[in-house]
Amino acid sequence: MEIHPRRWDISTAVLVAANATPLFGVLFLQWQVFPLLLLYWLENVIVGLFNVLRMLIADPDDPAAWIGKLFMIPFFCVHYGMFTFVHGVFVFALFGKSQFGAPFDVLANILPAIQRTGLGFAALSIASSHAVSFAVNYVHGGEYRHVPLSQLMSQPYTRVIVLHLTILLGGFLMMALGSPVYGLMLLVGIKTGVDVAAHRAERRKLAEPALPGKTVQPARVA
Questions:
Q1: Measured between alpha carbons, how far is 176 from 217 in angstroms, rounded to an integer?
Q2: Residue 100 reports pLDDT greater than 70
Q3: Does residue 213 surpass a pLDDT of 70?
Q4: Model-level pTM?
Q5: What is the DSSP string of 21-89?
Q6: CA separation (Å) from 79 to 46, 56, 89, 113?
Q7: CA distance linking residue 70 with residue 44, whole number of Å
Q8: Coil, helix or strand for 106?
Q9: Can you say whether the dihedral through the CA atoms of 193, 196, 198, 204 is positive or negative?
């Protein structure tokens, strides 16, 4: 039986609150397109790190799963890392306007870009949102007991690709319009709506049993 999370569980509420923090940057720190896209790119990194944790503790009672983790976790780190790196190069090259060095020096550019744009508080807020979801849904809710490694391998791409195609298209539009405040606020709102929909779809998907006929306790939502 498919399990539907409540419309406003704690992880969804924290997700919405975290996604609202960029509004402070837009309204009071004069953020334009680049800080927003850099923040959403940093969320890619956060998603990847938490997915490694998910893979690490997934299905702990299955000895075969631990053998699979020895190969699948490093593979995910390399593959997702390359995906994220290329995405970061595009963000710095297309929206950074060469103010942080060569676009391919993504690792060297991250900290100076965060410091100059004042993204630290928003990045911490988004990281906290993913931490709450990990603790409430994946650990306390029992998703880790039955989710297969193969599903965890592909899960971040589904969410990130849809979300950031939307963001990149919106970013180009905002640049063309001269980064109006109301347009940036609309971009934040669209990102929040897409993110909430993806989050809830992920909860439904991870709540389903991994194997036919396997009894799984319903995921508890705090």
A1: 50
A2: yes
A3: no
A4: 0.85
A5: HHHHHHHHS---HHHHHHHHHHHHHHHHHHHHHHHHHSSTT-HHHHHHHHHHHHHHHHHHHHHHHHHHH
A6: 15, 17, 16, 25
A7: 23
A8: helix
A9: negative
